[in-house]
């Protein structure tokens, strides 16, 4: 594939899961990739494991200086940045009665402030180039709300609003901003949930199966590439039809 030939992409939270699947998809499409992750060693290992040009660096997305360093690394190495994926995230699930302020604030910070840092700083470079694609990873939880996820649902809903506002600000600069809302995607985290919870979620999915990380990654590739050249401010659901 050549959808991203000679393009430079940055993926936060890219050492595992959806982030790694997206990094792998981008490299396969011809891109050079910078993987940022809170765990710098895992980011380096993930980059080493990709079949293409990639580097892995430590990055706490809550810290704007570290996000800027991630972008600077891409620009210094390859001269530009064409794609930025805000994927880094955490969960601290609990009902409101049991959720601590720290549980709430940490999830909001990583998802919402982290996404704002990445969007704002990547856009600053892209607007000078007059081109670029930003892909923000929201969640189905940001559409419908999930029990025990007032923090996560709020953050993921906020990412949708932020993406739309940023898309309006950046459209005339040639920079596109879009979001993806994955549903139940097979991962170590989701497969560890109690069978009862898994079965309940599966019953809500018309396609009757969980999604795979590469199925989200392919949608990210679409939004990162010129295939979506007339799309900005959109939210694409990758859910198997759950909660249509």
Q: In what order do the strands lie side by side in the largest sheet? A: 3-2-1-4-5-6-7
Overall morphology: globular
Task: Output mean pLDDT.
Answer: 96
Kindly provide the radius of gyration, computed on alpha-carbon positions and rounded to a whole number of angstroms. 17 Å
Strand content: 15-25%
Determine the number of helices (DSSP H or I, runs of at least 4 residues). Answer: 9
Sheet having the most strands: 7 strands, parallel
One letter per element, helices H and strands E, the order comes to: EHEHEHEHEHHEHHHE
Helix content: 40-55%
The separation of the N and C termini measures: 32 Å
| DSSP strand tally | 7
Which blocks of ≥5 consecutive residues have pLDDT under 50? Answer: none
Estimated structural class: alpha/beta
Keywords: Oxidoreductase
Pfam families: adh_short_C2
Family: Belongs to the short-chain dehydrogenases/reductases (SDR) family.
Protein name: 3-oxoacyl-ACP reductase FabG
Can you give a write-up of this model?
By secondary structure, the protein is α/β, with parallel strands linked by helices. The protein is 47% helix and 16% strand. It has helices spanning 17-28, 40-48, 64-78, 101-129, 141-144, 150-170, 188-191, 195-203, 213-224; strands spanning 8-12, 32-37, 54-58, 83-86, 132-137, 175-182, 235-238. The chain has a 7-stranded parallel sheet, sandwiched between helices. Strand 1, helix 1 (17-28) and strand 2 form a beta-alpha-beta unit. The longest helix has 29 residues, at 101-129. It is globular. It starts with 7 loop residues before the first strand and ends in a 6-residue tail after the last strand. The model has no long low-confidence stretch (mean pLDDT 96).
